[in-house]
């Protein structure tokens, strides 16, 4: 049943909480009547444990992410609209099967006219009965299930409760005008806590590629958080964007052309590719150190 599927997906989160609790109790043997005075105290202990080697970096990060979880909103973990794989309501079942087979998605949004008018969510298993014999001319919207819409400002922990209540694992995220901002899945929520879900045989690839000259090649969709984690680059603390592309657009206030540059904190960001108004690859390198002005008097 869908509930059993959800429970199996949520099981790693529950295990993560238990593992973190047991780990901390093992490392810091507190008395039962007094554990921690505050969340901040526990975060500091996690950082200390990592510095002293009693906690692995991944374990420390998990503790941090669990406490940061309630402060995050859906907008920070969505698949943006430009990356949504969707189908028009009048597409054929054959087309739907081709997309499902190619992209390996079990649920696909169905829209009418534009992606801002999503009418339902097509589950791959719901079209299986129509694959026997001759393919009937069925409107995909009639096979789709009712979509679940949430605002981008919705807290992630509230979304979890909604997923559980509605017995679903996918939601369409809308902006303040009701347009489609993106989509979010239960897998996105799980990854936010325990890290990206990968096949155990996949090779881990970094979003930040270090070049031999010390520069970096980065996708515009890379988050500022990941960039700061993997490099020494510091971005503005007060910001209204989440990605490197957002940072560049915020400074330029216009869509860049390939080759355009942005300078910030003695770092040069060169836009290498732009496709359909979307920033692709960006090269990041140190700028020239400002020359010291001569103090000689003549």
UniProtKB/TrEMBL annotation:
Q: Which residues form a coiled coil?
A: none
Q: Where in the cell is it found?
A: Membrane
All residue ranges annotated as the CNNM transmembrane domain in the record: 1-59
Choose one Gene Ontology CC annotation of this protein and give it: plasma membrane
Recorded protein name is CBS domain-containing protein
The record ties this protein, via InterPro entries, to: CBS_dom, CBS_dom_sf, CNNM, FAD-bd_PCMH-like_sf, FAD-bd_PCMH_sub2, Ion_transp-like_CBS, Transptr-assoc_dom
User: Which molecular function GO terms apply here?
Assistant: flavin adenine dinucleotide binding
For this protein, the record's PROSITE patterns field holds: CBS, CNNM
Give the UniProt keywords, A-Z. CBS domain, Membrane, Repeat, Transmembrane, Transmembrane helix
Domain named CBS: residues: 78-140, 143-200
Organism annotation: marine metagenome
* Membrane topology label: Multi-pass membrane protein
């Amino acid at each position: 049943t869908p509930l059993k599927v959800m429970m199996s997906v949520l099981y790693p989160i529950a295990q993560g909480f238990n593992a973190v609790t047991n780990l901390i109790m093992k490392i810091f043997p507190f008395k039962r009547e007094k554990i921690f005075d505050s969340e901040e105290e526990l975060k500091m202990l996690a950082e200390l444990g990592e510095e002293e080697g009693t906690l692995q970096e991944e374990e420390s990060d998990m503790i941090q992410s669990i406490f940061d979880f309630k402060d995050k909103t859906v907008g920070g973990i969505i698949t943006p609209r430009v990356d949504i794989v969707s189908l028009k309501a009048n597409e054929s079942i054959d087309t739907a099967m081709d997309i499902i087979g190619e992209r390996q998605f079990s649920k696909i949004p169905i829209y009418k006219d534009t992606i801002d008018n999503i009418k339902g969510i097509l589950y791959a298993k719901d079209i299986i009965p129509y694959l026997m014999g001759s393919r009937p001319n069925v409107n995909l919207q009639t096979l789709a299930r009712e979509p679940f819409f949430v605002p981008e400002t919705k807290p992630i922990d509230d979304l979890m409760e909604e997923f559980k209540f509605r017995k679903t694992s996918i939601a369409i995220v809308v902006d303040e005008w009701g347009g489609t901002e993106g989509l979010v899945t239960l897998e996105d929520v799980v990854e936010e806590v325990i890290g990206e879900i990968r096949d155990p045989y996949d090779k881990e690839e970094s979003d930040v590629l270090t070049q031999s000259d010390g520069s970096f090649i980065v996708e515009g969709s890379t988050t500022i958080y990941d960039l700061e984690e993997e490099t020494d680059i510091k971005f503005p603390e007060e910001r209204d964007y989440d990605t490197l592309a957002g940072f560049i657009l915020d400074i330029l206030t216009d869509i860049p052309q390939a080759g355009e540059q942005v300078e910030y904190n003695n770092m040069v960001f060169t836009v290498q590719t732009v496709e359909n108004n979307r920033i692709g690859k960006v090269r990041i390198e140190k700028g020239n150190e400002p020359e010291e002005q001569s103090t000689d008097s003549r």
